[in-house]
Amino acid sequence: MKRSPDAQIRSSRAKSREVWHSAGVSRLRSTRTALLLAALFTTPAAAQTVAITGGTVALGDGSAPIEGGTVVVRDGRVVGAGSGVAVPAGAQVVDATGKWVTPGIVAGFSRLGIVEVDGVAPTNDASARNTPWSAAIDIAPAINPRATPIAINRAAGVTRAIVSPGSAATMFAGQGALIDLGADMDAVTRARAFQFVEFGETGAAGAGGSRPAAFLQFRNALKSAQRYARNPAGYDGDSKDAFLPTADAEALVPVVEGRVPLLVHVERGVDILNVIDLRREFPALKLVLVGASEGWTVAGQIASSGVPVIASALNDLPDSFETLAATQSNIGRMKAAGVKVSIGTINDDEARMAKRATQYAGNLVALQKVPGAAGLDWGQAFAAITSGPAEAVGLGGEIGSLRAGRRADVVIWDGDPLELASTPTRVWIDGVEQPLENRQTKLRDRYRTATDGALPKAYER
Prior knowledge:
It is a single chain. The protein has helices at residues 6-23, 31-40, 148-155, 200-206, 211-230, 246-256, 269-277, 299-305, 330-336, 357-367, 378-383, 387-392, 439-448; strands at 50-57, 66-74, 77-82, 92-95, 100-103, 105-110, 158-163, 172-180, 188-198, 262-266, 287-291, 309-312, 341-344, 410-413, 424-429, 432-433. The chain is an alpha/beta fold and 461 residues long. The strands form 2 sheets. Strands 1, 2, 3, 4, 5, 14, 15 and 16 form an 8-stranded mixed sheet that branches. Strands 6-7-8-9-10-11-12-13 form an 8-stranded mixed sheet. Residues 305-426 form the Amidohydrolase-related domain.
């Protein structure tokens, strides 16, 4: 884990306070020293043993909420959660009576931290159009923990995010990362966590203009990776005529060998089947379907394949030729057919609005009451925004639930988290309590208490 144990942190903080008091703030002559000391006292509190008692506990694993439950975390990990969990001696006890306690929300597909303003190129690192590389691109160095959407989504209960690059020059976008939304500068939980590739209409455009060209480009790229794996020294990927640069071939080796998941954006039903069929030729592929607006039309085949899906929950209009069968019942119908399905936000303001996940999950619960529609029960819907995305990318043993041993990403809500009126009151990431202040709350507080004369009147010139 990236954060220090309790004893080390307490010792470090104690020594720092001695330095602070002995030096005297007024006598600090070094700007750099002052900034370092200031930063020390604005970081989140250290991880410790915390027992959250009396709340309605949702484990995030698909089970029903537990009333009057207890959650215990120690050294940044969950020790136990549920009913009958003992409170350790010396633990900090947090009374959550009348509130809900859940794992943090996992943004199933996002571009959090790599985009500030879409139309301003220097603030948008999602894709690179003028580069010879594609699959080798690693999005991790672009993650900015101080990007405005990070704090805003953290305050909405989002604690982890699956962050993907976007494709540009080819159908291969590059290597995505899992990040946390903590208030520190160490955001990347796992770099190069998956490879992302575009099929369907976008993939066809990146491969020259047709779906057959996209599938051919994909096959050739993976075969090139296999050749590189067999003989790295003999692989000629640096000449101008090389089909796949050496760096890209090297990056695709873990994919073709099944050591890294391959997230595939695909919407149309027949495209989904063709992507799944790629495993006949490359049987080790760990496929994850992203989007899948027409997934319900081939739900049986997806379920039989065992391929997980990170679907768009509100994609219910035919806004393209590959989403003609889009419906809000898509996720419910896939789940009913046995598909392992969770929620993502691809092409849905994914650089900023991961916090909509709770609304989308709540909508799926409400759909159960609509005649002819298909939704999810509460436990299934909450798992679709917590453990579901984590399991899809092979990290269910680390994040996404309150099962023992998982990272202590915990949120206390003032009500049912799938209700629009509910909001987080406290958030922990890796057992460290996080600040909930952000740019939006600062603007709210500034302007709702503005006095006459503090701001110019609209009618004055």
